[in-house]
Design goal:
Layout lengths: L2 H4 L4 H18 L11 H15 L14 H21 L10 H25 L4 H11 L22 H30 L3 H37 L12 H17 L4 H13 L7 H31 L5 H22 L7 H9 L5 H13 L5 H20 L2 H10 L1
Helix pairs in contact: 2-3, 3-11, 3-15, 4-7, 4-10, 4-11, 4-14, 5-6, 5-7, 5-12, 6-7, 6-14, 6-15, 7-8, 7-10, 7-13, 7-14, 8-9, 8-10, 9-10, 12-13, 12-15, 14-15
């Protein structure tokens, strides 16, 4: 055996070792200065980027501008599991008045955000109208994966603060509700700005049909899964075995079957989590299932964020100052202002309204939406879109991640 080949460093093994070191460090280092939950998301991205720069043999994920499929699949799985877990967290869905702020964030803040980002994209970044609409849809939703720090706790913990409830339910539903605007961008890219040719079909199919089907499929899927877990067979229900794998399989089945009938699978799995949680509400299986799915979600998120960090230097190479300004305006102005406007007229204290308006973290969902759009049509602004989205995710995780514990503590104390 050649001694040189024996001691050769396999890039794959380097990647595994570096990923392990980063994951441990980002969870451990913050504990040296604070007992609060560590802000691991921004550190994973930063350390991943540092590893790429400092370690010559460090392999990276494929460039998402050229190979979108791995990014699309991994981010889709992470979002699916996160959305189901988000639905599972909600202990009490009544009284219905508590959904008022959520409805306002979904029906007012999100469309305003999409419109504002699209306008900035066309004016300052030189994007096409289709690319600008896609950008707005990609960056508008609050990410269900990285927003866990502002959400309600696990099942059966109780004390669902109105701020946490609103941010949890918003993150659970706005990913699916952003999809019509992704389709709108794809339609404009394919057929041009001629609403008379496509507006009715877009409203009827992409807005009404897909949303209704997604919601119904999630409700039906949740009820069927509840029967399988808690009622059948009598005397020996699966819930007593703690088999989270069966429940996870049901989530994937619900998502896949909803997509097969052209519904929004993201809406379906969120509604499925909400529906399943209504059955045997005090059963210990709900907490076990939540913890099981959360562990998978954390593993996928860590892999994706470290991978994003490794390709971030490449993606940001095409960044311009106009894109930097757009990212800062989105995070510091557009989201807070649209959120504040949408909550006008509620009886929430100003501090609660401020936290809801500000803490709309962007992350894994944005990666999925952009990959989805790019896999369906070629855009002339692909590099610009990726640079901007990568920067927004980086800035959002840093700004929100390092301040969220303080903000939520202030709200709870108030």
């Amino acid at each position: 055996m050649n001694p040189d080949s024996f001691y050769a460093l396999d890039p794959y093994h380097i990647l595994l070792a570096v990923a392990g070191v980063i994951t441990i460090l980002v969870r451990w280092l913050p504990r040296l200065v604070s007992r609060q939950e560590p802000a691991s998301a921004p550190l994973m991205i930063i350390f991943g980027a540092a590893a790429t720069i400092l370690i010559p043999a460090m392999p990276t994920m494929p460039d998402p501008r050229e190979t979108t499929l791995p990014w699309e699949i991994l981010s889709e799985l992470a979002v699916i599991i996160a959305l189901f877990g988000t639905g599972m967290r909600i202990d009490r869905i009544r009284p219905w008045q508590k959904w008022g702020p959520t409805a306002r964030m979904l029906m007012i803040a999100m469309p305003l955000t999409i419109a504002a980002v699209a306008l900035l994209g066309t004016v300052f970044a030189g994007l096409t109208v289709a690319g600008a609409i896609i950008l707005g849809a990609v960056l508008a939703p609050t990410d269900p994966v990285l927003a866990a720090d502002v959400q309600v706790g696990p099942p059966q913990e109780g004390s669902e603060h109105p701020v946490r409830f609103t941010l949890t339910t918003e993150a659970g539903l706005n990913d699916g509700l952003a999809f019509p605007f992704v389709y709108l961008g794809l339609i404009v890219a394919a057929e041009g700005l001629n609403p008379s040719a496509w507006l009715f079909d877009w409203l009827a199919i992409d807005v009404v049909y897909r949303i209704v089907v997604g919601a119904f499929a999630g409700w039906a899927g949740g009820r069927v899964l509840a029967l399988v877990l808690f009622a059948l067979p009598k005397g020996a229900p699966l819930a007593e075995t703690g088999s989270g794998v069966v429940a996870l399989a049901g989530v994937l089945l619900c998502y896949g079957s909803t997509e097969l009938v052209e519904g929004y699978g993201f809406i379906a799995v969120a509604v499925m989590g909400l529906t399943l949680r209504r059955f045997e509400e005090g059963h210990k299986f709900h907490r076990r299932l939540h913890d099981f799915t959360e562990a998978i979600e954390h593993a996928l998120t860590a892999a994706l964020l470290i991978a994003l960090g490794t390709i971030l230097p490449l993606v940001l190479a095409d960044l311009s100052w106009n894109q930097v300004w757009i990212a800062l305006i989105l995070i510091l102005v557009i989201r807070p202002v649209t959120g504040w406007i949408s909550l006008i007229g509620t009886n929430m204290p100003h501090s609660d309204r401020a936290v809801i308006s500000v803490y709309g973290v962007r992350g894994i969902g944005s990666i999925y939406y952009l990959c989805y759009a790019m896999s369906h049509i070629d855009f002339v602004n692909e590099s610009q879109l990726w640079s901007l989205v990568g920067l927004v995710i980086l800035l959002s995780t840093i700004m929100h991640g390092f301040s969220v514990s303080w903000a939520m503590r202030k709200v709870s104390d108030g």
